[in-house]
Amino acid sequence: MLQQMSEYLDGNIPKFIESGLQIINGFAQSIRDNAPGLINAALDLMETFAKGIADSIPAIVEIVPEIIAALADVINDNAPQILATGVRIIGYLVEGLLKRFPP
């Protein structure tokens, strides 16, 4: 059975390649034909997104202090762990430097 599949594939690979190239060419042609519409839709989407962000700036500015306070609380609550990890990282860096540039 594998022999038959191998022979079938061997005899039809040029047809598969030709079909694949036709599909890729059709896809590329479709993109080329529809490019102006796709570009306009993408630009409209970006403009709408930017306008939405701009319209939301007052609400964003209003909530920034709450976000900063929440981040500060997280850092404060985890300070011992953060500091211990920072010390270990510095130790790894020093160890790497000492391996590269021995005293």
Describe the structure.
By secondary structure, the chain is an all-alpha fold. It has helices at 2-77, 79-100. The radius of gyration is 30 Å and the shape is flat. The mean pLDDT is 92.
Structural class: mainly alpha
Poorly predicted parts: none
What average pLDDT do the residues reach? 92
Overall 3D geometry? flat
SSE string, helices as H and strands as E? HH
Radius of gyration: 30 Å
Number of separate helices:
2
Task: Give the N-terminus to C-terminus distance in angstroms.
Answer: 68 Å
Secondary structure topology:
Blueprint: H1 2-77, H2 79-100
What are its keywords?
103 residues, mainly alpha, 2 helices, 0% strand
In short:
By secondary structure, the protein is mainly alpha-helical. It is 95% helix and 0% strand.
